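Write out this protein's structure.
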Amino acid sequence: MRDRRPECGPGRDRTQAACAAGARAAALAPELVDAFRRPRSAHNAERLRASESWIEHGLILPTASGNPSDPDTFSHLFSRPARKAGLGHWHPHELRHSGASLMLARGTPLHVVSEILGHASIAITKDVYGHLVEGEKRAATAAISGALLSGQRPMAPKDAEDTG
């Protein structure tokens, strides 16, 4: 899946660095890939109707002429099913935060979440989501305390080679 970042360009709020780094590959579950492929037949019908006015951008949710959807329009259309599902007035960006929070809750390392989100630095991810990894800090403290204070020898990582 490509993230084309249509919000980049003149008069937009995105920085050049974010725009330049914006196009990236995303790993998707097979079920999600299938869900994105289903609308393809509708896009093909729209492409035929639009004929020469269709502009191919390789998008998942293009307009009837193939162009990127206006972010405000997409946000408005997205909020309808969110309200219907009882989530309140959500915007697509809430999915990004929810996804990051779920990944961290399931033990995905902070640096991996940072890469998936496309943050320029892991510090950005830590500033936004650091409160979600407090339990990991406590577990690390307990591990080092146990290793130092219990008299047990620390265990080497399973993939460590014998250097002795």
